[in-house]
Design goal:
The chain has one domain: Pectate Lyase C-like (3 Solenoid). 10% of the residues lie in helices and 41% in strands.
């Protein structure tokens, strides 16, 4: 039987301690949870913790992912301050290509129970969400500083 639930810490080595760079672990988890092209979608569970990112997390598949945090205030995916990578346009981006022509078929984007931390990055967005046909962000929060102002907002609370 194929495992339907993946754990960011157990299966991909994420630390969630706010110090270690968890970008590769969460990116690999996102990739593994996506379906399409004969591959079954899986749930990526992210336990409570602060996950430090050094670049954008990017969903590359047309189907998925299904990401569930343990709790909205307990799971923080936070971009490190003063990111200089010009390809880092958002903490989380659900489209692999932001330039040029592309397909409009992006299905089942699901992100629930987490906080996105933009950090001190005035030119970076929290989430760039592309999806049609059953995509959702639910019970989440966005925190960070943009242009010197603190911002905090909620998306689709339960």
């Amino acid at each position: 039987m194929t495992q339907a639930k993946l754990d960011a810490k157990r299966d991909f080595g994420a630390n969630g301690d706010g110090k270690a760079d968890d970008t590769d672990a969460l990116q690999t988890g996102l990739d593994a949870s996506c379906g399409g092209k004969g591959k079954q979608s899986k749930v990526l569970f992210i336990p409570n913790g602060t996950y430090r990112m050094t670049r954008s997390l990017v969903v590359k598949s047309s189907v998925g992912p299904w990401v569930y945090g343990e709790s909205r205030d307990g799971v923080i995916i936070r971009l490190t301050d003063a990111v200089t990578d010009t390809n880092c346009t958002a903490v989380l981006r659900t489209h692999p290509n932001e330039k040029g022509k592309t397909s409009a078929d992006w299905f089942m984007r699901n992100f629930r129970n987490l906080t996105i931390g933009v950090g001190n990055n005035s030119r970076v967005d929290d989430i760039r969400f592309y999806g049609n046909n059953s995509g959702i962000t639910q019970n989440g929060c966005v925190i960070g500083r943009a242009a010197g102002r603190l911002r905090k907002s909620q998306f689709m609370p339960d």
